Amino acid sequence: MCSVVGYIGKNKSKAFVLEGLSRLEYRGYDSVGFACLSQENNTIVSAKAVGGLDNLTHMFTMAHIDGFLGIGHSRWATHGQPSESNAHPHFDCQKTVAIVHNGIIENYLSLKKDLELLGHVFYSDTDTEVIAHVFEALLVATSDMENKHKTLAQVVVSLVSRLTGAYAFMALVQGYPDTLILVRQRPPLCVGIGDNEMFVASDAFAFAGKTDKVFFLPEESFAFVKKNEIQLYDFAGNALPVHMQALDLSWQDSQKNEHEHFMLKEIYEQKAVIHKTIDSLQALHDTIWDYMGITAQQIRTLDHISFIGCGTSWHAARLAQFFFEQVCKMNSSVHLASEFRYMTFFPTQHKIHLAISQSGETADTLEALRVINAHTMPTVALTNVASSTIVREAGGFLLTQAGREIAVASTKAFSTQLAALYWLAHRIALEKGLIAQADMVQACADVIYAAQVLEASIEKYKHEISAYHARKYATYSKAIFLGRNSSYPFAMEAALKLKEIAYIFAQCYPAGELKHGPLALIDEHTPVFIFSHQDSLIYHKLLSNAQEVKARNGHVVAFVFEGQDEMCALADLYFVVPNVAPLLGQLAMTGLMQFFMYAIAKELGCPIDKPRNLAKSVTVE
Ligand code: AGP
Description:
This protein is α/β, with parallel strands linked by helices.
């Protein structure tokens, strides 16, 4: 989840590289760096800083370096502490090669040991630095008599044959001032094609608005990018065709406008983008199976849906399970992508595998998808980024219309995932003849209404939360979250929000499990957040749990639905949400939950959009 950005062309590179890094800073931000070929003497000049981009741009050195070929990097540390020496770019001994890298070189220690025996000197603890030294060793080898006819492509083929792991890197090489070298195995790399200039980055968002043509490097390929040409090769050195695509990414929707944080802006965008998502899916109505890469016949005989995801996307999957089981009368399973890869995979018929990923770049989810693809089983991606890797690698896809989600903590991606999955459950049920067209129309209306309740509930409580409750609950160092049935994965999502933006330890349990041990944790110092359910039986079970907590001097914050007065009477603090369609209660409650967690983090003065240790897109395993 680092960001790499590069430029080669008619203009100087620094301005674009720094702007591109600032656009992608959500992917990692513990240290930054820039390098370019100086025009004066064709040497590599560079600057690096710990912390965010501002620390780099304000460096004295930066004022004096620029060039027509440049690369930059913002880091999320995998190997080596965040420090100036570990910041990218990394160099070879002679500083004739500069590398910026996203990924992990898994065999770097053995490579480093061999290179040190050859006399190479290392200055960092990173895995990335070995790439520069291997490159140097190969370039030196080709300069001696018997190898001097080796081409740069042959050098890169030798280079990648030595590397193990997942890597997307760019290289400046002093001897090749007209070429930006790109290498990709797993994490994405793309090229924006300009007029006598090329913009290169981990994510096309870096050059949104600068060009309408983009090229995505295929898996296991490398490219020599010149200001008006791309030469592409596979890892065996065979030339490959370059397939450009249209790029319709706008940069405009990425401003905070009147909001203090992107997260707050994105919380408030939910009603509109849920509506937009439903409208876009309804517009696909009859062609939906083509997009998903499956046939109507396969849908009619479908009897199992298997979800895969991480973090919030996994929570959405866990919640959606209830949609498919109750609407499609279908068995379902949900897997954490990071666990799925190491489980035994049993290919079975009449099953589809739905990978959920907001970014479409999460390494764990992509690797799990590749396991399924290897068994030629049907895979479908549900993602928010049409230009993402997961769209290119899954058998088919569905898109949420949340718009670019900048804040690391996922909000509108979550609610649009729920909306899309609720719609899909009904569309499959319609195809199977389990519901009528009128039910499909009603389902869409129910989602739209739940989205209205989502926003209205924030408006109803935002003042008292901001003025009183956030201050009170910001004083706790830990909390317990409880839910049952579909409110359990919702409680997990709430706990994750509090953890990742307020850094408060938040443990989530299925409420029924409380009495099997966790009840021992209940005391007046640990607030218990209980997320109710519209189903009467489940609600009364949750009421019993709240009574268990109160009987032990616990403190209850209850998120309930209208009419659940007993819970309100019992709770120390409660919020009431209007009733909606039975399966959409959690969607309706989403905005209020997110706003409360946001307000607590804001009260604590946390860097909400870019929390410590995290990154928006986890493109390493
Ligand atoms: C959620 O707030 C986090 N940002 C994180 O858990 C995220 O949901 C997870 O990394 C999965 O990301 P994806 O949806 O882009 O695959």
